[in-house]
Amino acid sequence: MDKESVRIPAHVGIIMDGNGRWAELKGKKRSFGHRAGTANVERIAEHAFNVGVKALSLFAFSSENWARPKEEVDALMKLLERYLKKFADKVNKNGIKLTVMGDTTVLSDHLKTIIAETEKATAGNAKGTLNIGINYGGRQEIVKAAKEIKDCGEEFSVENFSKHLYTFNLGEPDLIIRTGGELRLSNFMLFQSAYSELYFTDVLWPDFDEKEFDRAIESFSSRKRRYGAVR
Ligand code: FPP
């Protein structure tokens, strides 16, 4: 990708779908796919910040993912416990902050502690943000914002809603990528995606490499964003 001629989106969101199918195609358990998907988080985060993305929001575990078999939920939680700190250490070296969006109150004490520690350790970084959705749901986030606005006695305005979203400091994603072939947002950043450019690919998340990421950026770069206006 020629960085000079391509417009790099400041904020990219990714719905990382296809881990399970990737593993099943290889005759392995779904958790094998989640492990490969986790390794891919490291590869794509490094690449995204290298090409100039400022914020990367990743959908790791949705509010609805609790409905999966216990074994799979446990495997995902273990991966988060094991790798969040590793990712934070890595991005910390490059001045990137790690944040978590979602209702973390129901997570294990161990995971809550890891999240608190990694957020604290990287809080002073200003070059970019790796934002991870854990027990995140876009509808739940909108309801949370509405409750907070009501409790504070504020006016129900678009601006005030934006202020009460997890992404208040990050702004809205310019580009949302979904891997794995499904053509939907599945409760990801519903408020923030009003004017996001959407990119869907059949490539399964563990196979979504740097070249595939660049393809998404090139597609974004060729779009004309009008935000409802004429030009
Ligand atoms: C969707 O694939 C993927 C998930 C529900 C989990 C995504 C989580 C990771 C990649 C781990 C992230 C880890 C860290 C530390 C950030 P799927 O299981 O729905 O795949 P399928 O559609 O093929 O069944």
Could you characterize the architecture of this molecule?
The chain has 231 residues and is α/β, with parallel strands linked by helices. It contains seven helices and six strands; from the N terminus they run βααβαβαβααββα. A six-stranded parallel β-sheet has the order 3-4-2-1-5-6, sandwiched between helices. α4 (109-122) links the parallel β3 (96-101) and β4 (128-136). The model has no long low-confidence stretch (mean pLDDT 96). Bound molecules: farnesyl diphosphate.
Draw up the topology in text.
Blueprint: E1 11-15, H1 19-25, H2 30-51, E2 55-62, H3 70-93, E3 96-101, H4 109-122, E4 128-136, H5 138-152, H6 158-163, E5 175-178, E6 197-200, H7 210-221
Parallel strand pairs: 1-2, 1-5, 2-4, 3-4, 5-6
Helix pairs in contact: 1-2, 2-3, 3-4
The structure holds farnesyl diphosphate.
Farnesyl diphosphate binds next to helix 1, helix 2, strand 2 and helix 3.
